[in-house]
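Working notes for the structural subgroup meeting. M.R. asked for a predicted model of this chain before we commit to crystallization trials. I am recording the input and output together here so anyone reviewing the notebook later can reproduce the run.

Input as submitted:
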Amino acid sequence: MFVTGKYASSNTFYKQEVILDLNQKCLRQNNTFLWFFVFKAKCTPLPLIDYVLIFRTLYAKCETCSIEDFNNSSLLQLSLVYNKNRRIIIHESQNQTEIFNKAKLIAESLNLKIRDSASQRNKSIWI
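Returned structure, recorded in token form:
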């Protein structure tokens, strides 16, 4: 079973596609440069994952966004947390149901808990 995700870096020309193989417990991060140069990576084994994290983050290119617009101009980010504070970003989106569905699929397959830091600002809850 595979979970795919995409996220953009602060550079407009560079994007990453993440393919998480839940059966093999490995991760592949393909890099795209200028929309047509694709650098495919090998599947690397996942470290020991602590939990799945969902949180809100401001888009990297949103320089004019203020904290007051945080809920309107932010992205939801799905990450895997390991070594207590290290993260592997799996997917970014503004679609909340898409993020939560992917998080539930990953959590059920890898037998992990989900930490929701996106629903209520400054308050995390375990799902």
